[in-house]
UniProtKB/TrEMBL annotation:
Domain 4'-phosphopantetheinyl transferase residue range list: 134-224
Biological process terms in GO annotation: lysine biosynthetic process via aminoadipic acid
The keyword Transferase is annotated on this UniProt entry: yes
Signal peptide: none
Limits of the 4'-phosphopantetheinyl transferase N-terminal domain: 48-124
Lineage: Bacteria, Pseudomonadati, Pseudomonadota, Betaproteobacteria, Rhodocyclales
Name used for this protein in its record: 4'-phosphopantetheinyl transferase superfamily protein
Keyword Transferase: yes
Family matches, as Pfam families: AASDHPPT_N, ACPS
Keywords: Transferase
InterPro entries: 4-PPantetheinyl_Trfase_dom, 4-PPantetheinyl_Trfase_dom_sf, AASDHPPT_N, P-Pant_transferase_sf
Species this protein is from: Zoogloea oleivorans
Length: 277
């Protein structure tokens, strides 16, 4: 299947999100919505609305974190997830009930057909929503890792190790995180997390203009979407279905108080990969 055209990110304001369901774009059954936010949220009506949404269990989980900024990031990410899910279903966000599978992946108790996933890395959050199939998302900051070689040896398949070793030294670090986020996203979409050995999967990324990718070791088909809203981060979404071209919609928060990277409507690197059935 050919790749989707380059996707753009649509800006939304905190005021419009805080206003209620009428301001949210509808989620069609065959599309993927990706929402990215700064963490913690800047002071705004949206922040105050979001902080009121997590339930007692979610507040308690956040309260166990040592640092205040981490507690806010946890609360804001959970509140944003409730806000988006409630808007997509037309239900009050605080009324949503979550259940977890044996590996801890949450689903909606009363709407299992709405698939979602959340990832946050320090001051970035990524939320994916779709009705098409199970989904996983992952966001990582590109950075040097003292144990990168050990991670490659223990978590990458032989084919991935060989591919990475053949890359230019200048691209090896971002390429490592492209594979890493894809693995994380696929494992989350499978619902097994690290109960499935990461090295049992092989991610085939697109090269030399080829816009097809594969996931060996996991039943498909798959759509993998990798993008970088700024050079220092990689975000990957995995959906266990072939999405039609153009059915990926991105949204980002735009306000005077938001970091400049949130207002960048285009990604530095955007690739849509469709795996083989």
């Amino acid at each position: 299947m050919p790749a989707s055209p380059t996707e753009t990110s649509q800006p939304v304001t905190s005021a419009s999100l805080a206003a209620g369901n009428a301001s949210f774009p509808p989620l069609a059954g065959d599309e993927l919505q990706l929402w990215r936010f700064p963490l913690p949220l800047p002071d705004s009506p949206l922040r105050r609305a979001v902080e009121s949404l997590p339930n007692a269990t979610e507040h308690a989980r956040a309260g166990r974190l040592v640092f205040a900024a981490d507690r806010l990031r946890q609360l804001h990410s959970r509140g944003l997830l409730r806000l988006l899910l409630g808007a997509s279903l037309g239900h009050p966000p605080h009324s949503l009930r979550f259940v977890a599978n044996p590996h801890g992946k949450p689903t909606l108790a009363d709407a299992p057909e709405l698939h979602f996933n959340l990832s946050h890395c320090h001051d970035r959050a990524l939320i994916g929503l779709t009705r098409a199939a199970p989904i996983g998302v992952d966001v990582e900051r590109i950075r040097p890792l003292a144990d990168r070689d050990a991670l490659i040896a223990h978590c990458f398949s032989p084919a991935e190790q060989a591919w990475l070793a053949g890359r230019l030294a200048s691209s090896r670090e971002p390429d490592f995180f492209r594979i890493w986020t894809a693995k994380e996203a696929v494992l989350k979409a499978l619902g097994s997390g690290l109960a499935t050995a990461p090295e049992s999967l092989t991610i085939h990324l697109a090269e030399n203009g080829d816009k097809c990718a594969g996931v060996d070791g996991a039943p498909g088909p798959w759509t993998l979407f990798t993008h970088s809203p700024e050079p220092a981060h990689v975000m990957t979404t995995a959906v266990r279905a072939l999405l039609a071209p153009g059915r990926i919609r991105q949204f980002h928060l735009t306000d005077d108080a938001c970091p400049a990277w949130m207002d960048n409507g285009t990604s530095v690197q955007q690739d849509t990969f469709h795996g083989n059935p």
